[in-house]
What does this fold into?
Amino acid sequence: MDDRRCLQGILYVLVNDIAWQLLPLELGFGSGQTCWRRLDRWQQAGALDQLHRILLAKLHAAGELDWTRACVDGSHVRAKKGEPRPARHRSTGGKRAASTI
It folds into this structure.
């Protein structure tokens, strides 16, 4: 299956929010499994991140992005789980004496 048809199949699945196995073969995009494997291969190669950056740059250059309405979530940017804790240090002082009462 050629890349363009697989991309169309991937977009069809994502836009219509259907399971990969429900991609209709009669649309000519190949099987859902074929499209999913191609998507995985492109993701592993970094092609989708590169495509995303190029698309954002072109839209920004054309004045088509309204950055005041942008948001960031954990699916695109790694969310930190709080401040890192300082390392524990051993005490150099002596131990307290056991109670003699």
User: Anything to note?
Assistant: The radius of gyration is 26 Å. Residues 47-61 form the longest helix (15 residues). DSSP finds three helices and no strands in the chain. The mean pLDDT is 85.
